[in-house]
Amino acid sequence: MIYPIVKFGDPVLEKQATPVTAFDEDLQKLVDDMFESMYAAHGVGLAAPQIGISRRLAVIDTTFKEDPDAKLVLANPEIIFTEGRHTQNEGCLSIPEFRESVTRPRKVTIRAQDVKGNFYEKTGEELLARAFLHETDHLNGKLYISHISALKRDLMKRKIRKMMKAGEW
Ligand code: NI
Questions:
Q1: Which of 6, 12, 67, 132 has the most other CB atoms within 10 Å of its CB?
Q2: Mean pLDDT across the stretch 88-98?
C-alpha cells in the first residue's frame, strides 16, 4: 500500500516519535509499505512520521532499487559516532520542491534494530551518513530546515504559507 506523504505544517512531523516495541508481522507490512511509498515518491529515505505514524522507524535506500543490500530498516536508531563535515544540497519528501545546502558530519555510525528486532551497527559516508542523520532527526521531530540559517528558513516558511493559502500545499 502506498501512503500519501505528510507535508510540512502537519504537527506529526514536529513531534518526538515513540519507540518500536513489537517486531511482528504488522511491522514487516508497515516496512514493506514504507519502501513502496518511498519509491513511489522518488525518495531515498522515509521516516514513519512522514506517513502520519509517530514511531521510531525509518527506511533508507540510497541506491534507489539498484542494490537490494542497500535497503535498510532503522527501528529505534541512535547516532553513536560522527566525524568530519560535508556540505550538500538536501531535500525532504515532506517539503517538496525545496532544497537547501546543509552541512552535516561526513561519516556517521548508527545503532538500530532491523525489522526482526536484531540490533546492528552501520557506518555510512556522505549520502548514506546524511540519510542516517536526516531520518533520525525526523524521529525527533526535527526537519532539515533546522540546520539552515534562520533567514533562509523564514523565507522558505513564507513561501510555504503562501502556497498553503493558495491551496497548493
Ligand atoms: Ni525528510
A1: 132
A2: 97
Which domains does the chain show, CATH number per domain?
11-165 (3.90.45.10)
| Per-residue pLDDT, 120 | 98
Which residues contact residue 93 at a Cβ distance below 8 angstroms, ignoring those fewer than 6 apart? Answer: 5, 38, 41, 43, 46, 50
CB atoms within 10 A of CB 104: 21
Catalytic pick among 83, 90, 100, 135: 135
Cα 167 to ligand 1 centre (Å): 22
d(CA 54, CA 39): 20
What digits encode the pLDDT tens for the residues 108-125? 999 999 999 999 999 999
What is the three-class DSSP state of 91?
Answer: coil
Q: pTM for the complete prediction?
A: 0.97
Q: Is 135 a catalytic residue?
A: yes
User: From ligand 1's centre to the CA of 151, what distance in Å?
Assistant: 20
